[in-house]
Structure formats: C-alpha cells, structure tokens
Specification:
Strand order of the largest sheet: 6-7-8-3-9-10
Shape: globular
Radius of gyration: 18 Å
Number of domains: 1
Helix content: 25-40%
Number of strands: 10
Order of helices and strands: EEEHEEHEHHHEHEHEE
CATH topology: Rossmann fold
Strand content: 25-35%
CATH class: Alpha Beta
Structural class: alpha/beta
Largest sheet: 6 strands, mixed
C-alpha cells in the first residue's frame, strides 16, 4: 500500500540544514496496524504529515497505492488524501462553527457523495458511535471524550483505506482512551490500514508492528 524510499525532511537557515527525518525507508502492507514511537522531536508527527500528504516539502520517493506521490502535483496529492485517508488528531480539529452532524457530513462532500445519501450515512455513523443525541450540538458543547469520538467518526465515515492517528488518546482519560483504541482495532480487523503515533505502551500494543524513531532515523521497524 505504502512504500517510502530514502525520505528526508529538513529546514534550512542560511547554509545550515537541520534534518527532521533521515533516510526513511518503509513499507506498509494493506491491513496493517502500525505504531510509531519515539521521544519528542524525533520526527513522528512530521512522518505522519508526509504519509497523509499534508506536507509536500521533502526529498525521496513515496508510493501510495501505486501512485508516485513524489511526482504528483499538490492538487493530485490532495485528491488522494481526500479519497483514501482519514485523520484522527490529538486536538480533535473539529470545525467549531459546525454541528456534530455537519462535521460528519464534510468528508462525504469531499468524495462527491450525493446529499440524499449523506443523510443516511451520517445517521448510521451517529448511531454506531452512540452520539445521536449530540448531532445538533457544537464541539464546544461536548466533553473531550465526546469530541474525540466525533473526530474518530468523522475520520472513518467515508470508509478510508488508511487512517492516520496522531496521539488519538492524548487528551482522554484511560477509559475513553480504551474506547477509542478499541474502535480503531475493530476498524483494522475489518481491513482498514492504521498508522498511529503514541507514547503509550498499552495503546502501542494494539498494533502488529512498532516503528521507533530517534533523531529522525528509524531505529527499529
């Protein structure tokens, strides 16, 4: 599904290059559940941003579903992102001006799902995540755990092939964190590929492979 070859990312100030990622070579098979770990500043979130095609400034080769991402224009990368990838962020990234229902509807509009079909899909998702009673509320009216459930629902509503999760339980207490991780594990068992970043050893164990980054280099994986 994913093939990275010698991916490097750096920031330049005058003649000085500060590397964030060094010679990252990695293959991800469809259906895997991968955990990326490492200390703060090791490049975990940067790698996730590249995988999600949010960051296009890097060197190397990146193949996604046989598409050469390294050769694609930004517009084409964005289309791949919207069609195949769902995100779960630590800070939720819900749109504060939209209701829960409207937040869930947005990914479907990106994929040209007809409005008549969207209503049914959103209703099913609200029911699946047990948030029907929250559909007309705004994110600011929800608890942190409820916001993260909505964020997970939004990430998976359009049935992406790949879910990228950056510290998805970082702001949740343990029972809420387990609920989110169990949801991700269930999706993985249904065939969705998942790559998560976490510092939590327990949540790391939900995956089938751990990749450790240190100072931008892969140390294990």
């Amino acid at each position: 599904m994913i093939a990275l070859r010698n991916i490097e990312k750096y920031f330049q100030a005058g003649p000085v290059k500060t590397y964030v990622l060094r010679q990252i070579t990695l293959d991800v098979e469809e259906g895997e559940f991968i955990t990326i770990m490492g200390p703060s500043g090791s490049g975990k979130t940067t790698l996730l941003s590249i995988l999600g095609m949010l960051d296009g400034e890097w060197d190397g080769e990146f193949w996604f579903l046989d598409d050469p991402v390294h050769d694609l224009r930004p517009k084409n990368r964005a289309e791949l992102n919207k069609r195949y990838i769902g995100f779960v962020f630590q800070q939720y990234h819900l749109l504060d001006s939209l209701t829960v229902y409207e937040n869930l509807e947005i990914p479907l509009s990106y994929r040209n799902v007809r409005k008549a079909e969207r209503a049914g899909i959103v209703a099913d998702s609200l029911d699946r995540f047990q948030i029907v009673g929250k559909k007309d509320l705004f994110p600011s009216q929800l608890s942190g755990g409820q916001q993260q459930l909505v964020a997970v629902a939004r990430a998976v509503i359009a049935e992406p092939k790949l879910i990228l999760a950056d510290e998805p339980t970082g702001n949740l207490h343990s029972s809420q964190g387990k609920e989110v991780m169990d949801l991700l594990k269930g999706l993985n068992e249904q065939g969705t590929t998942i790559i998560q970043v976490t510092h939590n050893e327990t949540w790391a164990g939900y995956g089938n492979r751990i990749i450790e980054l240190y100072d931008g280099w892969i140390q294990k994986g």
